[in-house]
Amino acid sequence: xxxxxxxxxxxxxxxxxxxxxxxxxxxxxxxxxxxxxxxxxxxxxxxxxxxxxxxxxxxxxxxxxxxxxxxxxxxxxxxxxxxxxxxxxxxxxxxxxxxxxxxxxxxxxxxxxxxxxxxxxxxxxxxxxxxxxxxxxxxxxxxxxxxxxxxxxxxxxxxxxxxxxxxxxxxxxxxxxxxxxxxxxxxxxxxxxxxxxxxxxxxxxxxxxxxxxxxxxxxxxxxxxxxxxxxxxxxxxxxxxxxxxxxxxxxxxxxxxxxxxxxxxxxxxxxxxxxxxxxxxxxxxxxxxxxxxxxxxxxxxxxxxxxxxxxxxxxxxxxxxxxxxxxxxxxxxxxxxxxxxxxxxxxxxxxxxxxxxxxxxxxxxxxxxxxxxxxxxxxxx
Length: 381
Prior knowledge:
Elements: H1 2-33, E1 48-54, H2 61-69, E2 78-84, H3 91-96, E3 103-107, H4 113-121, E4 129-133, E5 137-139, H5 143-150, E6 156-166, H6 170-192, E7 202-206, H7 221-231, E8 235-247, H8 252-272, H9 283-296, H10 298-315, H11 319-336, H12 344-367
Parallel strand pairs: 1-2, 1-4, 2-3, 6-8
Antiparallel strand pairs: 4-7, 5-8, 6-7
Helix pairs in contact: 1-6, 1-9, 1-10, 6-12, 8-12, 10-11, 11-12
């Protein structure tokens, strides 16, 4: 029996370490050895349609539209498409108050979530490139130019932009660290071939490559749409110089329900994208398995590590398991009491624990069945 728990412990530990340490190292090596450059053209300006799905965004939609209209991009090649998922506030009134033919408004007849808005509105957009963005994401002046230059390369089907979080408190040490970690991997994945996901608040694809995603897609368009681009034989790259800003709650607790929703969407996406586990996809297969699959299921491996190591701590004779379990317990306790012991390391531990717990709850939400993609906005600062 002890041998079984030892096997479970070391296998789970390997997968966990592979996802967070070994894969980034391998990615760094492979990206430099097998780098595939993008043929950018700074003077390439395709027509761009900015798609903004909204639900009760009266507070920010005017600022959002004004932000897009102020961007440094040929105005004759820029349009804005706002899709409302049955908003009940003054969102529609705010959008229609702009007397500008470049601004289009569409309202759903019944709630279908962000997915419903994207599926219905994206095919209507009259532009070469569709930029998907959220109402609370504000773009920096040259971000569309940075996006557009990549589409001069005919092998590029989509470009993901970088998002900086405007936050304070818990979010400052947690989400921003996670975003930096993710961004570096996305850059290197794009150097190999394609990043297999984007930050949902700011990414783009060629209009002709848009394929409707399943109607009950739950907070996973930023994975499914980029992977549809890769499936059609094009690259999905990440440009860290195309920057936007996004405000956050400033609290891990307030972001928890959003993370549970994202977790449920992750597992939903996994079972829809199983065919990408076929090695014939090459680098996208390697990145999908190593970056997403191992990361999505990491909470299950962490639980296996804890249970197996706990068993070996009590019933085994090897001192190494007693040391590992004791050290891990100290980190967990320190993380739980980070507000009492406000050290940077304890904050990181707490954030990591909370986000993985949210992922576990998301897994059970997925198992319970997701029938609707409708969502409620997260109240942010």
